[in-house]
Amino acid sequence: MNDEMVEISCHLCGGSRGDPLHWEGSFQMVRCSSCRFIYLNPRPTDQSLFHFYQGYLPEDGISIESWRRMMRPIFRRSADLIKRHREKGKLLDVGTGFGFFLAGMKDQGWEVEGVEISKKAISYAREVLNLTVYPGPLEKVAFPENGFDAVTAFYLIEHLPDPMAFLRECHRILKPGGLLLLRYPHTTPIKNLLHALRIENRLYDLPAHLSDFSPGMIQKCLEQVGFARCRHSVGGHTIPDGAGKRLATSLFGKLAEGLFFLSRGQVLFPGVSKTVVAHREL
Predict the structure, then answer these.
(1) What residues pair up with 232 in beta bridges, in sequence order?
(2) Would you list the domain boundaries of the chain?
(3) Which residues partner with 274 through β-bridges?
(4) Distance between CA 266 and CA 268 in Å, rounded?
């Protein structure tokens, strides 16, 4: 990442004032004083971000397989969520990476397409998995209106320069009754705890993550662009490499799942990643 940075206003409400929240190196997350949205400010320019993401994903075969293995439980749970609403149809995965979720849904009978910004990931999805993947961002692909039964995005929205523009485009390209599934991290509660304990960390992964969403904030954004019937869940957990990371992820993931189950879906454990399913109204 080069040093090209730009000051921005809040993308949710247009507010120009952001109260300092957390630092990671020279990068600062702020909280909008008007709507409480958490975002990186200042942040890299769009051009800087595009070049940055060309090297963001792993490249060698072992690392790509590790990434697939890490995400497999999330993909499986998400496929099950989608099947509760529709058995088959046309699905778009945005920020599809190497295309493993698309490949799995294709095997289940879905007609699938993807959007990705990394040129190396696009090549892998096309050449190795024989998938149709378009170079992003989504808003520049210009899909026809009402074209998809489902749109998915895994760990994407926190990376986007304009998350509201992304959500509006998802709403436009979905068929009436279609569903949007988002998987996103919820990092700020853990950052607050570690800050209180004076433990240094880089959990925001700045400047890769440009914002951080709570379930309440993500629902507010979805409803603002016209989505309805938002259903939140913990949605499983990843399986990262490394015994320490894998143990921590499993421990907190199972705790979060247990609380969610015992509370009949009312308790979303702070700090762990969440999944939300929302619908475009008929």
Answers:
(1) 276
(2) 59-280
(3) 184
(4) 7
**The pTM is what?**
0.93
Per-residue pLDDT of the chain (282 residues; tens, 9 = 90+): 556 899 999 989 999 899 999 999 999 999 999 999 999 999 999 889 889 888 888 888 888 998 899 899 999 999 999 999 998 999 999 999 999 999 999 999 999 999 999 999 999 999 999 999 999 899 999 999 999 999 999 999 999 999 999 999 999 999 999 999 999 999 999 999 989 999 988 999 999 999 999 999 999 999 999 999 999 998 777 776 676 666 667 777 778 788 877 888 888 888 889 999 999 998
Give DSSP secondary structure letters for 220-246. HHHHHTTEEEEEEE-------SSHHHH
Give CA separation, 189 vs 192, 249, 271, in Å.
5, 16, 5
Answer for the pair 110, 132: CB distance below 8 angstroms, yes or no. no
- If phi > 0 it is left, if psi is from -120 to 50 it is alpha, else beta; for residue 8 that is beta
Looking at domain 59-280, its CATH class is alpha beta
Phi-psi region of 51 (alpha: psi -120 to 50; beta: other; left: phi over 0): alpha
Best CA proximity match to 3, nearest among 32, 57, 42 = 42
